[in-house]
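Anyone able to model this chain together with calcium ion?
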Amino acid sequence: MFKRALATTALALAASSAQAITIEFDYSYDTSGFFTDQHKSVMNAIAGEFGTRLTDSLAAITVSSNNVFQPRVDLITDGTPTFAPSQSIPQDTLRIFVGARSLTGSTLAEGGGGFSAGGSSTFIDNLNNRSQALPQGLDFGPFGGAMVFNTATTWYLDDNVTTVESFSGFDFYSTAIHELGHVLGVGTSAAWTNNTSGLSFTGATAMASYGGPVPLANSGHLLKSIDSTFMGSLQEPALTPSITAGQRKYFTELDWALLSDIGWQVAAVPEPETWAMMLAGLGLLGWRLRRGVAKTA
Ligand SMILES: [Ca+2]
Ligand SMILES: [Ca+2]
Ligand SMILES: [Zn+2]
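re: yes, here you go
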């Protein structure tokens, strides 16, 4: 239903003048071998899409013998956490550790982030906001985070996520962009909390998009009955609590507005053909709560 032919009009690549974010997915802790080339292809498409539309400026994280940063690579809250070795992250880069395990109940995946660190206050401050505008807590600037997918789920792996076909199973792309929203701070950051009032999100960009305070289903998700738009078509946002088998959900304008309100610089809505290029990867070469997305019957 979002299938579109390439337009014949000339296209200005407006996004190319902005500073793109590099999204690195780190598979080195995928010990179960969940991520096949098909999975990685979807993740690469997402890295292209989000890396191009997020136009922020993130300071580098540079570790030393005194300044230690160990990203958390699991999202397990009921066991011993696993941290990666201390590591630096280049400027304008987000490093997201991805893996899979059997998740209980109806949870399809979880996303969030955390780390263990020690060092100077300047170093620690930079881990928390990567030189975003002060005061802290309004402009979220993480190192990246972690995402874990349920190995027990029957996933649909689309070899071209710009087209929607009939499918069974749960859409890996839709689930991954939902979790990426959490990694980027939706429901998991002080900037998010500071823009909520009870079960309403009151960030200015989102309110302008929705037409008033945006109703939430819980502290980290939009109400499922909300509609926004993707490429001009009405769609349930990506950041509602659940998705149905056979359902594709793209990141709607309201989802992007949430990111804008928690401090991300977001490029203008791309033309459909630009968006397709971004997905093809051609556009441009503290502890936070974990959040899940559930499946609906
Ligand atoms: Ca497709
Ligand atoms: Ca920012
Ligand atoms: Zn969620």
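The pocket of calcium ion (ligand 2) is lined by residues 56, 132, 139, 141, 263-265 (CB under 6 Å).
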